[in-house]
Amino acid sequence: MSGNIHSVLQETRTFPPAADFVRQANISGDEQYQKLWQRAKDDPAGFWGELAKEHLVWSKPFDKALEGTMPETKWFTGGKLNASVNCVDKHLTTWRKNKAAIIWEGEPGDTRVLTYQDLHREVCQFANVLKKLGVKTGDRVTLYMPMIPELAIAMLACARLGATHSIIFGGFSADAVSDRNNDAKAKVVVTADGGWRRGKEVPLKKAVDDSLAKSPTVEKVVVVRRTGSDVSMVPDRDYWWHDLMKDASSECDPVEVDSEHPLYILYTSGSTGKPKGVLHTTAGYLLGTQMTSKWVFDLKDEDTYWCTADIGWVTGHSYIVYGPLQNGATAIMYEGAPNWPDEGRFWEIIEKYKVSIFYTAPTAIRAFIKWGDHWPNKFDLSSLRLLGSVGEPINPEAWMWYHKVIGAERCPIVDTWWQTETGAIMISPLPGVTATKPGSCTKPLPGIVPDIVNEKGESLGPNQGGLLVMRQPWPSMLRTLYGDHARFKETYFGKLQGLYFAGDGARKDEDGYIWVMGRVDDVLNVAGHRLSTMEVESALVSHPKVAEAAVVGFPHDIKGEGICCFVTLKQGEGNDALKAELTAHVRKQIGALATPDSIRFAAAVPKTRSGKIMRRLLRDIAAGKEQVGDTTTLEDYAVLAKLRDTEE
Ligand code: WT7
Fold first, then answer.
1. Which atom of ligand 1 is nearest to the CA of 425?
2. In this structure, are residues 280 and 479 in contact, taking their beta carbons and an 8 Å threshold?
3. CA distance to 109, 218, 358, 399, 494, per residue, from 209 (Å)
4. CA of 299 to the centre of ligand 1 (A)
5. Residue 197, domain member (yes or no)
6. How do residues 273-308 score in pLDDT, each as one tens digit?
7. Which of 237, 255, 273 is the last residue in one of the domains?
8. How far is 188 from 163, CA to CA, in rounded Å?
9. Could you give the CA distance from residue 26 to residue 19 in angstroms, rounded to a whole number?
């Protein structure tokens, strides 16, 4: 980890918010922002406490807004509430009762609309189903599902009972599912026969069957019929969703839980060891997602809001389900791929539903650019009023394209920096406040106090690259890594005393704008998703022919970072057939999202004298900045390494 990072990006264009946007915005003008930000910094407990009183529905009011210091902070202690009440029930006594909560579009073109009343009925019914299957307050439930309304229903049903959901993205393999089932000690798995992706079926139930051979804690499986294909159903273990729902009552009293009761676990990659079970608790997470949805997306009742993320990632948790629903918003949920049946699908959906707020990822934007302007240009996108980006730094070219071709130079762009661990958006433009600069996530939201520091935790000056940290706690931050509190403290608070360390490098420019430069640890950001080099390396080494592996990222036009694997064999030589075999092996171990982009056989992996893989050298080779032969030997590396500075 290096404290001083050299930054090469120079961007001078700025885009101030339009006057008519400012006039109607939920936070408008720099003065209002400055006041809020300063107030929150000086008195975080007072600031968040007032918001929590006003914007959360409590069954018992809290005593104290904030207790303790990082990493052991507790928010809204003494209070009791229920997340499903805050997302659904609270709207039933208002005109929003019959408002669309979720407008769902399946990949094949089928649709479903759930009003808040519909959602309430189904959430209660499914909560009763879970109860009947033995789920109790505090139990963990795995959700391994396609992007169908039943996923949101299952999340809220867990929350209604005070059970903790653990969602596993449908692109993960059976092995990844059993690892997570075991770590969370999940009692029930909810899945579907399959889901649709690019016209093909993702066989989810099959993966669950394979995972259950290695998941001893799982007692019951509920299966949604989505694709209608044949799946095996084990008697007394597997049940169809529709069978169980038929007899379930639509009344289910919500379980009042403590503010700090676990709401969900979401696994994310770290630089060492197995995936980390990031734990979010109830009240703070709800407040963070609710307020940031209002502030950053300027969410209004009239909006049709669409976040294209999969609910298997934190973006979907926070900004398809918990944030928008608490705000009584109408959210679009789309099951499938952006290029199915053709590359116009997203723009067709925007035109069809008159989407006003659109939130997607830079990797998707780069794919849109590649597919050509004629796709979006075929559709009427004039309903759009705000655009968002998340997952990785957005390159200025992609930002400008988004601004011109999708936003017609009219829509503000919010480039939102946050993490699975932060629960909610931390650094982002406010659309009625901030003059944006392409490529910068700009400034911290009220209540967020970031800094750029060196390895000693000392603040750095303007344009000095360093480590991105948080100096103050915030309500939606993770509370622990499930079952491993020591790792939680070490990972996020162990390097810099008293500061939350995000793992990103960044700089602040002369105007105080933050420019995130990417991860400084051994974590790849592939298509906006975190993958640890270590996990891919151990997947490779688990193949019988592999002796050693080193995995690095390299610049990739669409995915941001591609996965390059240097592999040393136990014996013999590598060939294309073995490359294909290793690729399939990694996919089986982790899932399709970890598919290597390039595999290079090497006679040895270069290491420093202390035994660390020389990643910087390998990264340069992977990026084509250093040329080596087909089969690289240690001697080749030694020559290269000598030509450059030291690696450590
Ligand atoms: C990492 C978090 C937040 C939901 C999706 C990813 C990178 C995220 C930005 C942004 C620059 C960004 C960071 C961060 N990242 N958003 N707007 N600009 N970098 O969640 O999988 O927990 O990954 O994604 O490196 O640490 P995640």
1. 3
2. yes
3. 28, 11, 36, 43, 39
4. 22
5. yes
6. 789 999 999 999 999 999 999 999 999 999 999 999
7. 255
8. 11
9. 14
Provide the 10 A C-beta neighbour count for residue 299.
26
In 3D space, the residue among 276, 177, 317, 254 whose CA is nearest the CA of residue 479 turns out to be: 276
pLDDT cut 70: percent of the chain above it: 96
Per-residue burial over 95-116, b if 16 or more Cβ lie within 10 Å, else e, is ebeeebbbbbbbbeeeeeebbb
**Closest Cα to atom 11 of ligand 1:** 393
Residues with CB under 6 A from ligand 1: 268, 314-315, 390-393, 415-420, 441, 502-504, 516, 518-519, 525, 528-530
Whether 367 and 407 map to the same domain: the answer is yes
pLDDT at 629: 66
Token output for 208: 């669950």
Q: Which residue minimizes the CA distance to atom 7 of ligand 1?
A: 392
Could you tell me the CA-to-CA distances from 170 to 236, 523, 549 in Å, in that order? 24, 21, 27
How many Å apart are CA 277 and CA 321, to the nearest integer? 20
Same domain, yes or no, for 473 and 603?
no
Indicate the pairing of strand 257-258 with strand 238-240.
unpaired
Domain that holds residue 539: 523-645
pLDDT at 8: 57
345 Cα–ligand 1 center, Å? 25
Nearest CA to ligand 1 atom 8: 391
How far, in Å, from the CA of 23 to the mean position of ligand 1? 30
Expressed in angstroms and rounded, the spacing between residue 525 Cα and the centre of ligand 1 is 8
Shared domain check, 41 and 167: no
Report the pLDDT value the prediction gives residue 646, as an integer from 0 to 100.
Answer: 47
What is the Å distance from ligand 1's center to 392 Cα? Answer: 5
Asked if 505 and 499 count as a contact pair (C-beta separation under 8 A), the reply is: no
Residues 6+ apart with CB under 8 A from 578: 545, 569, 601
* Model pLDDT for residues 503-534, shown as the tens digit of each residue: 999 999 999 999 999 999 889 999 999 998 98
Q: Pick from 463, 491, 515: which residue ends a domain?
A: 515
Ligand 1 mutation pick, 525, 532, 561, 593, max ligand atoms within 8 A of CB: 525
Q: What is residue 643's predicted lDDT score, i.e. its pLDDT?
A: 56
pLDDT recorded at residue 386: 98
What average pLDDT score do residues 64-72 get?
97
Is 13 a member of any domain? no
Cα 439 to middle of ligand 1, angstroms = 13
Residue nearest to atom 20 of ligand 1 (CA): 419
What are the b/e assignments for 545-580, b being 16+ CB within 10 Å? ebebbbbbbbebeebbbbbbbbbbbeeeebeeebbe
Q: Quick one: which atom of ligand 1 is closest to the CA of 528?
A: 6
**Residue 636 pLDDT grade (very low, low, confident, very high; cuts 50, 70, 90):** confident
Q: Which helix (H) or strand (E) holds 469?
A: strand 466-470
Residue at 563 is within a domain = yes
Residue 5 binned pLDDT confidence (cut-offs 50, 70, 90): low
CA atoms within 13 Å, Cβ hemisphere of 552: 20
DSSP string of 43-95, one letter each residue = -HHHHHHHHHHHHS--SB--SEEEES-TTS-EEEET-EE-HHIIIIIHHHTSG
CATH number for the domain spanning 113: value is 3.40.50.12780
